[in-house]
Amino acid sequence: MSQRTRATEPAIPAVPPVTGGAPRHLVSIDDVSIEEMHALFAQADRFAASPRTFADTCPGFISASLFYEPSTRTRLSFESAMLRLGGGVLTAAEMTSSSVVKGESLADTIRVVGGGYADVIVLRHPSEGAARLAAEFAPVPVINAGDGSLEHPTQTLCDLYNLHVERGRIEGLDVVLAGDLKYSRTVHSFAFALARFGANIVCVPQPGFELPEYLVERLHEEFGVEPIRADARRLGDLAANSDAVYLTPQKPHQLSLFTDARGWEVQQVDAVYMTRPQTERYSGNEMSATQYLRLEKRAMAAESLRDAVVMHPLPRRDEISADVDADPRSIYFKQAARGVPIRMAILGWLLGRIDLGVERPAPMPASTAVPLGRNPCPNPSCISRTETRHVVPRFRLIARTPLRAGCGYCTREIAFAFVGCSSTGVYHVPSAKAVGQIHVEHLVFLESAADAEQLGFRASAAS
């Protein structure tokens, strides 16, 4: 871009740095409204056009990279983004060889780093919900760079930004998610975001690694998505050995009337999002006995993929053949490069140096500390189970009638046989009318009558 053109562009709106009040965090893709996403894409377009000319955006600010898991693209793209904005970076890329070895808790690490070392923390952690825990203790913004198999919101913003650049829109697109859909946190965040935009999803999983049921349930509850078998023959070799599923938030009435035994016919798709096997999260008996899905040049000849861009969050193994790299539809290296301008926009925004010009969404309902008894979260990889200090188990209500609740950190739904009231000392069956009258701070989730009696509860006369 010429200097003359650059000089005539409107300046990026800047505001003074945030010096008081609660910081804005990016823990989940749900923390960003659709309007904010569009505004971030517009800012990223500006940064991408001339990335070396914005060093006056965040001078004097420091970003800390706290990575408890390996990373190349996410860490380097965040650090590149901060440096291009004129700020500095602190890197702790191998947190497992730091004070963690000495027994320091995540909460203490966050308080120290955010207490004077850095103005924003970029965190990657193997436990689901770790970023949400960090946000409880951080005096500065926390950015989730991946927590276990739960979410990776900045990768999702990067993926959405690539669709914005390549397709000009996200609404109504048809996107194939292929590979390990069970453990890929990029897929989980991406699926929610696509549903929010009204895009359609074709799941082509590696056998045995389908989208988790709790995620499908959430898509159903929040977006009216009804999973239906997909007739993916037009996808050719890509879906030859997979039971494809079609998810759409737009056609509930059509799907309810659909009776074709072959499934909803997949015709043309706009993007194929391949994922690698997330072997670092597999247990010993989860290794698939079948050959992993592979996208080859021959598969790209399928009629339905004629106009589809090929995406991958990287790193890849063998799931995309090297002969696909030269195909103009393959954008995964562009996708990685575009991670820098979108993360420049995210950093400038959370540090209060860029005004997006749109209203922020209403905050999520607050979670509640579990008042008594065991930690009810069923997820062994949740931060509430892997971090033994400075973590109070929390829950968030999903529904009152019948009563349903999810973990306040990893969102996994809680299973229980009875519900107690810590105020009255009485426990009830979940369907009891009295349960609806218990104040949220007094709810106790009980596995059994024996569990209730051990904690000193007495049975309700109605139970």
Domain count: the total is: 3
Task: List unreliable stretches of 5+ residues.
Answer: 1-10, 13-19, 257-261
Give the CA-CA distance, first to last residue.
73 Å
Q: Tell me the quaternary state.
A: single chain
CATH architecture of the largest domain: 3-Layer(aba) Sandwich
Helix content: 25-40%
What value does the average pLDDT take? Answer: 86
Strand order of the largest sheet: 9-7-8-6-5-10-11
Task: Give the gist of this structure.
A 7-stranded mixed β-sheet has the order 9-7-8-6-5-10-11, covered by helices on one side. A 4-stranded parallel β-sheet has the order 2-1-3-4, with helices on both faces. It has helices at residues 3-8, 34-49, 73-84, 106-117, 130-137, 153-167, 185-197, 213-223, 252-256, 332-337, 339-350, 383-386, 449-454, and strands at 62-67, 88-92, 120-125, 142-147, 174-179, 200-205, 228-231, 245-247, 264-265, 271-274, 309-311, 368-369, 394-399, 404-407, 418-421, 426-428, 443-446, 458-459.
Describe this structure in words.
The chain has 463 residues and is an alpha/beta fold. Helix 2 packs across helix 11 (339-350), helix 6 (153-167) packs across helix 7 (185-197) and helix 6 crosses helix 11 (339-350). It starts with a helix and ends with a strand. The chain has helices at 3-8, 34-49, 73-84, 106-117, 130-137, 153-167, 185-197, 213-223, 252-256, 332-337, 339-350, 383-386, 449-454; strands at residues 62-67, 88-92, 120-125, 142-147, 174-179, 200-205, 228-231, 245-247, 264-265, 271-274, 309-311, 368-369, 394-399, 404-407, 418-421, 426-428, 443-446, 458-459. The protein has 3 domains: 9-150 and 339-350, 3-Layer(aba) Sandwich (Rossmann fold); 154-335, Rossmann fold (3-Layer(aba) Sandwich), CATH 3.40.50.1370; 368-459, Aspartate carbamoyltransferase regulatory subunit, C-terminal domain (SH3 type barrels), CATH 2.30.30.20. It contains 13 helices and 18 strands. The chain is globular, with a radius of gyration of 23 Å.
